[in-house]
Amino acid sequence: MFEKIRTEIFSDALKTEFKVSKEHFTRNRKQRFPLLLLFMMNFLRKSLFLEIENFTNLFKTGSNLKFSKSAFVQARKKIKPEVFDKLSQILLSEFYANNDAAIKLWKGFRLLAVDGSRITLPITDELKTIYGKTKNQSETIIIQARCSVIYDVLNNYVLDGALAALKRGERDLALSHLECCNTNDLIVYDRGYPSYDFIDQHLNRGLNYLMRVKLSFSNLIKDFEKSGKKSLIAEMYPGKNANLSDKKYTKKTPIKVRLIRVELGKGQVEILVTSLLDSKLYPVNQFKKLYFKRWRVETFYDELKNKLRIEHFSGYSNQSILQDFKAALFVSNVQTLIVSELEDDIKESNQVKKYDYKINVNVSYGLLKNRVVSLFLNKQSPEIDIVEELKLLFKSNLVPIRPNRKFERNSGKYRTRTKPKITKNQRDGV
């Protein structure tokens, strides 16, 4: 399952591509390139001294791999953070290319969702320069990055993730994710994303979309909402104040869109805009449930912040921040791959239980600590034994799925705090 990734980690090609300078890693030192990668993906959430002690104790007695905090800090500067993107791409390619029976689709589409959030960073001069400063509600200066991911909501994989300064817009980051999309994808967006140009960018790439829009988005949306119609194919034009000096279209260039009315209850209505024009293939009554599926990307941020504890960074430099962020996305995909192989077993066991059960995500990440190192350590690692051990442990830590539970969303809870907060019911898994 993970043989290809293991081979890549220990390959000279990966080292050559992702070392910062060609002079780096030319001598055989303790901090070898593949061992540094394994160390960084092993949930570095405690002090570096304790993490180094833990890591070196995973090796055989007499291996003489002890190194200092300072040595690690210096060595990690020689590695580009994008190395973890490459490892994720290998994992995703294996899953999507050789796993047709297991890939979940919606009417033939891979269902993707893009969403953004904010990540609180350490306060350093370097990070202030890169990401800028902001204030929370108590006027305390904090540093935050804009985070954006594109996520397969049916198969639970992160296809791409990015950190940027808050001044960089969510739409711009979302467009950067489209490089990993294809014409068999349907991309779902919340109401902060839609614009004429944003939709045009998708059409130019041959990509299908589903976007929620504000009722005040345009007169077209206002008129459709007042009409009471459930579905309408209409033409959308650029806004009258739009600057089109660098665009290939004019204010008279139409885009054909389909408007969908979704009744939420208690008189609430939301309007969706989509490129899926065929009402026979895509009946209007399917869109409420379809749009709701994007909620999985929201819950992924809970995993990222509260289970993987991404804001507990192992270093203060921007390079360290990006390494930790991208390593966390990769490990998330590793966890997903193992969990996906348990679905049939869990479904079968659920048939004789009062509630349906699922993997305890927090515990599963904790169980990956150290085991993820053994999984990729070398060609002699008993991969099958480790994966089977993890599967047994995952299955022994299931939690019930309680239907019809609702929680009030607090969209600003991560924006106003000065440092990460773990609540009592989010005990550390790693």
TrEMBL record:
Residues 412-424 have a biased composition (Basic residues). It comes from Psychroserpens burtonensis. This is IS4 family transposase. One of its GO terms (molecular function) is transposase activity. NCBIfam families: transpos_IS4_1. Residues 108-333 form the Transposase IS4-like domain. Transmembrane segments: none annotated. Residues 409-430 are annotated as: Disordered. GO terms for biological process: DNA transposition. It comes from the Bacteria. It holds the Pfam family DDE_Tnp_1.
